[in-house]
Design goal:
five-stranded parallel β-sheet; 10 helices
Length: 257
């Protein structure tokens, strides 16, 4: 048994919604829990990994089903994609991309709601980045609000490991605008039949995503200055049209549930 596909990134890009939709397809089996965090588990013996741990999240009696999982840290966490390739070099990978400034704000809101973050957003995206730089390997699971938004290096790493035809990129804002069309495209990519799984009203952003007073114009401008060149590189690497992300007045179409 091998898993056929992975929703490998990025955090806060609609992976929970996509996972939930795919679970409703009769020919697809997702892991018993979202985010098994197998390939980013640095405590495992990767010289002889026990894939039975991963396979334990599945009912293996349905031989003809497509099996996948969604752990969106894989594109960011060192060695995750390399380990995934060693497991199944023929795997298909799905990567959602959200405007990096809005992704950072949503990430920060999530961590503050979990009481994992005490800094203001403004401080967290500035001096708070030192916490990531000082972490082992220069990566951090919690405080990487800015670092996870530099997509181009993650995309190039992915493309260096897997053929382009095994990777499908989508924009989170387009997923929200056209959920059924986006899902149908994912199913075509996976080789699964279309199914009447959703209506547009069923796409829910679980954390409020529209800017409020905490996401001040100065912070947005600061992040856009940081990310603008990387957005251009990401567009070139993925083939996605991202020009509107460079506009200072860009706003996500998602509204609070």
């Amino acid at each position: 048994m091998h898993l056929n596909f992975f929703i490998a990134g990025v955090q806060k890009s609609g992976t929970t919604a996509l996972d939930a939709m795919l679970r409703r397809h009769p020919a697809i089996e997702m892991a018993a829990q979202k985010e098994p965090h197998f390939f980013d588990n640095d405590t495992l013996d990767w010289g002889k990994p026990d894939y039975g741990v991963l396979h334990g999240f599945y009912d293996r009696t349905g031989a003809d089903r497509l099996r996948g999982e969604a752990t969106p840290i894989y594109t960011y966490w060192p060695q995750s994609l390399e380990r995934l390739k060693a497991y199944n070099p023929a795997a298909k990978l799905i990567v959602g991309l959200r405007h990096p400034a809005f992704r950072a704000f949503s990430h920060w809101r999530m961590e503050t709601s979990r009481s994992a973050e005490e800094l203001s957003f403004s401080d967290a995206i500035r001096e708070g980045r030192q916490r990531v730089r000082e972490a082992p390997g220069g990566v951090h699971r919690v405080y990487s609000y800015v670092e996870r938004g530099f997509y181009s290096a993650q995309v190039h790493r992915l493309l260096s490991l897997f053929p382009r035809e095994q990777i499908w990129f989508f924009r989170t804002d387009e997923f929200w605008r056209a959920p059924k069309e986006t899902l149908d495209a994912v199913l075509v990519f996976l080789g699964a039949e279309a199914a009447p799984l959703i209506s547009g009203a069923e796409y829910i952003v679980p954390v409020q995503s529209r800017p409020d007073l905490e996401f001040a114009g100065a912070d947005r401008r600061y992040l856009l200055d940081l990310f603008c060149r990387d957005i251009e590189r990401t567009a070139e690497a993925t083939g996605l049209e991202l020009t509107d992300w460079l506009a200072s007045d860009y706003f996500e179409p998602m509204s609070p549930a």
